[in-house]
Amino acid sequence: MWPDGKRCAAAFTFDFDAESVWIADDPENAERPGVLSQGAYGARVAVPLILELLERRGLPATFFVPGIVAEHHPERVRAIVDAGHELGVHGYTHTPPSRLSAEDEEAELRRALDVLHGFADRVVGYRSPSWDFSRHTLGLLDRLGFRYSTNMMDDLRPYLHPGTGIVELPVQWILDDAAHFWFSAAEWTKPIAAPSQVDEIWRGEFEGIRRLRGCCVFTMHPQVIGRPSRLAFLEALMEHVAGHADTWVASLDAIAEHARSALAGDG
Ligand code: ZN
Q1: What is the Å distance from ligand 1's center to 163 Cα?
Q2: What spacing in Å lies between the alpha carbon of 265 and ligand 1's midpoint?
Q3: CA 219, CA 72: separation in Å to the nearest integer?
Q4: Which pLDDT does position 78 carry in this prediction?
């Protein structure tokens, strides 16, 4: 499936939620600067540090950005695009599709596309807030011209959603930084994992996916992964993953387009 005799693909992806995830979670948070400051850290500190890290390692990445975040932090989104990274849609307000009517879901997608097209010509990927789909989502993505989705947990390799032009690039909570590191005052008893624990889990998953010739999609959030201890772990992990000559590190757009041709070739 992979180009140039590579055994697997790997992608470093970042959901740049900033304040939007807190407000979508509870609209009253819009009036709570302390809560919002957790998201502001992503825009203020973490995105620049992540861009420096990617430049140092010479790696491409994909950033999923809610439309409202791109409007509030345009300079950060411009920096992401100027550095050559891919932009993907992550809703407009970060509201999970299952909480929206079909009309509102379509309006969110169209508005998000409009905003992101102000920064990048090519915007073809969709990651829903919380990887949540409604029964309308897939049809909407197809109709609005999206090329890939990265939301489902039912495979290790890309596949084509039947009856659509949408390639799926599967994800899983195990490869999501939030599952391990996310902390909020609403879940006071949830422990914060050590980077060494996540390093062990992610290296193990990467090795397994590589053995099975799959696609390893790391999902991260600037406000979560962007702490100094975690960025140090991420840099070592990137060095490890990219250090395998048989591993293709690419944007999700590039992986999806390659998978599309490979899957067509398989008949
Ligand atoms: Zn998100």
Answers
A1: 27
A2: 34
A3: 22
A4: 98
What are the structure tokens assigned to 120, written together? 């990048």
Distance (Å) of CA 14 to CA 114, 176, 177 = 20, 10, 10
CA–CA separation, 267 vs 90, rounded Å?
A: 31
pLDDT value of residue 266:
64
DSSP reduced 3-state for 187: helix
Q: How far apart are CA 183 and CA 73, in angstroms?
A: 23
CA 246 to centroid of ligand 1, rounded, Å: 31
The tally of CA atoms less than 13 A away on the side-chain side of residue 177 is: 22
Q: Are 141 and 149 in contact (CB under 8 A)?
A: yes
Q: How far is the CA of 178 from the centre of ligand 1 (A)?
A: 10
pLDDT one-digit tens code per residue, 11-41: 999 999 999 999 999 999 999 999 999 999 9
Ligand 1 centroid from CA 37, angstroms: 16
Q: Confirm if 236 and 203 have CB atoms less than 8 A apart.
A: no
| Mean predicted confidence (pLDDT) in 91-97 | 97
Question: What are the respective helix, strand and coil percentages of the chain, to the nearest 5?
Answer: 55, 15, 35
Buried-exposed string 197-235: b where 16+ CB fall within 10 A, e elsewhere = ebbeebeebbeebbeeebbbbbbbbbbbbbbeebbebbe
Total number of domains constituting the chain = 1
Residue 33 sits in a domain whose CATH number is: 3.20.20.370
Ligand 1 center–CA 94 separation, angstroms: 6
Q: What is the span of the domain harbouring residue 217?
A: 3-263
Q: Residue 174: what residue type?
A: I
Query: If you measure from the C-alpha of residue 181 to the centroid of ligand 1, how many angstroms do you get, rounded to a whole number?
Result: 14
* Separation of CA 20 and ligand 1 centre (Å): 8
